[in-house]
Structure formats: structure tokens, C-alpha cells
Amino acid sequence: MWKLSDEIAEKLEKEIVEIYRKAEEAAEKIEDWKEIPSATDCVACGVDGSRGVERLSGTIIYTISAVGVGKEIREMSEMTTLRPHSNVEERIRLHMHISEFRIGCFAEEELVLIDGSLRGAFIRPASYPEGTNDLYANYEVENFVSDFVEVLDEHFKDIERDLAAGRAKKNYLLSRTEILQRMESSYRIGDKRLEDFTILAEYIEYLHSLNRLLEKKVLFIAKSFYTHEFDSEVCDSAILDVFSLKNFGFLKSGYLVFKPSFRKSLPWFVQRNRKQFRNLFKEINSAFIRLEDNSNLYLLETTEKISSEDISKLKGLEFDGYPLPLLQAHKIAKMKRSELRDLIASITSSLSPELAPLLRGSREILEE
């Protein structure tokens, strides 16, 4: 077994001591930490999702589960294959967020809670093609973007109908359907660049869903975050923990509203189609919040102004320091992931034996 040398231990301790010293300095400058107001009643929809991936020798099959828990439970369960086989994890993650955002779009509750970071939702995915000259040379890109958004608006009506009927169980990603293949052919004016065209469509579909979601009163709540509002080297959560321990002797509940030092970098097709993506131009407002003494600190983000009434409503939804609708959505999404993976196994085992070479797993030797 590898042993930790004295030199490495001393170096690690020295680094942590330095981080703590900087956290103390930054904590002395913190102001406006407010008390959590009394709880008020609120009906909210908590949204979370999960994904499962089977990497087979000839294809990648994956499942997406998105769940909304409020006055009722809404579910979307999707299973599809991924092609081309590039930036796999990033594109599957994007698909999961698309489904989560769509669940939130159709919530009827007064408040929608999303597990995750809003500023993170604006970070351009690694799969997105860096240069667009090739796409412009070979496609009528601007016409495609505008028309594809209109197709997606119509598609939302189908999703809403299926969710209301409790049968949202199929692939709802239009960029993986024959519709996109037909559009690729229709808007092509040069060489075929299917991979870049498909990934562009996936990103449009993602931002379209986020834009529609932001029509509602939505609060993004991040459990893990590494923001640097107080210090460029020490993360804010560490500084706020030190602040609380120094001033109160324990991790005291409370919140601090702030304007984040974050600038969105919106892609060109959003800039040129501002009217169709108008909600993406709204400013982000943020708060650090601890709903219960000695519980975890969370990052709250929204495009609305954060008021004491919002914090009061979150306190009314809190269970053990975290909003109960999000806890419930997470548990159901996790259960659905297990069910869908079993379904993948059932489907692949029922296929013709001739297809076996394409269905072999690639990780059996690493499994216990």
C-alpha cells in the first residue's frame, strides 16, 4: 500500500493552513448576513433528473429520467442511442438537463426548484463546435435556427399533452429524430457536416428549454459550488463557514444576497435571435443560504429579485436543511434510473443473436 510521506503531509498541511488564513481575512469583510425569516406556506415543484449509460461495443444506449414533485408527480422517461460518438458524457448530461427544464416548464405550482446552478447552465458545453465558419459555408444556419425554434415550440405542445396524460415515455430530443435529418438536408447548401449540425441542434434545443423555463418563477439551488465572490483563491463556502464559526460559534442559519461577478457568454445564434431567446438575457441574482443551524450552505440563483418572502417560502419547504420537494424528486429520479437500466438489459437480451457482436459490454473485466 502506498504510504504518505512526511514531506507530502507537511506540504498539504501548510497549504490548508494558508487557505484557512486567507478565509479568516476574507470572513472579516462579510456584511449583510441576515436571519432566516419565519416560514410561510408555499406550493413548489422540485425537479431533478438522472441518467444511465450502457457502452456497448457497437453503440451507446442511455436513459434519461426527469421528475417533478409538487401537487402531483410528473415524470419523463427517455431511452435512446447516441451518434456520433463524440463528447458522450457532456451530450448525455445536456439531454438530462433538457428534460429537467421541460418538466419545470409545465409545473403549475407557484415556485419551481431546480437542483443545480443557473450560472452553470450558461457555460458553453465542450461538445459545441468552436468555429462556425464551416457550418455557415455549408448550411443556411440563421434560417435553420429560427425555424428550428418554431418547430421546438410546437413540439412543446406534444410534451405537455403526454405529461398531462402520464405517458411521457419516449425520446423527446428532436435533434435525434428524422425531423432533424430532414432539416439538415433542407438547409444544406454545401458539404454534409452532420456531426457539427447535430451538436448545434442539441445545443439550440437545450437553450430553448432553458429559455422557456425562465418564463416561470424558478430558483436554482446548488449543493456543490466553487464560487469566488469574496476571494480569488478561497471558495465562498469555506469563507462563510469560517465567518459563521468566528461570529456565532456554530454554523448559523441565514442568508446573504449578492450580485454575482459572472458574465454570460451567449452563443452567436442567441445574440442574433434575441427575441426567440429573450429570457436568456435576464440578469442573474444570487444568495448564499443556510436554512437550518449546522446544516449545509447552498447557492441560490434566479433571474428574479431575491426577497425575504422567497427565503420565507424556502424555509416553509425545508426538511433537515434542504427543500423537501427536491429531496423527493431526487429519490424518485434515482429509482427510475435503476428501472430504466433494467429495461435496457431486457431489450438488448431480447434482440436477435446475430446482433450480439454489437451488444457486448466493454467493462466486464473491471466489474466486481
**Over all CA atoms, what is the radius of gyration?**
23 Å
Terminal CA distance: 20 Å
What is the H-and-E element order? HEEEHEHHHHHEHEHEEHEEH
Q: Which secondary-structure class do the elements indicate?
A: alpha+beta
State the major sheet.
8 strands, mixed
Order the strands across the largest sheet as they lie in space. Answer: 3-2-1-4-5-8-7-6
pLDDT under 50 segments (min length 5)?
362-368
What is the percentage of strand-forming residues? 15-25%
Mean pLDDT: 89
Tell me what you see in this structure.
- The protein is α+β, with helices and mostly antiparallel strands.
- It has eleven helices and ten strands.
- It has helices at 6-27, 88-105, 118-121, 133-138, 141-165, 178-187, 194-213, 236-248, 268-271, 308-317, 324-349, and strands spanning 44-55, 60-69, 73-81, 111-115, 218-222, 254-258, 285-290, 298-302, 318-319, 322-323.
- The strands form two sheets. It has an eight-stranded mixed beta sheet with strand order 3-2-1-4-5-8-7-6, sandwiched between helices. Strands 9-10 form a two-stranded antiparallel sheet.
- Helix 1 crosses helix 8 and helix 2 (88-105) packs parallel to helix 7 (194-213).
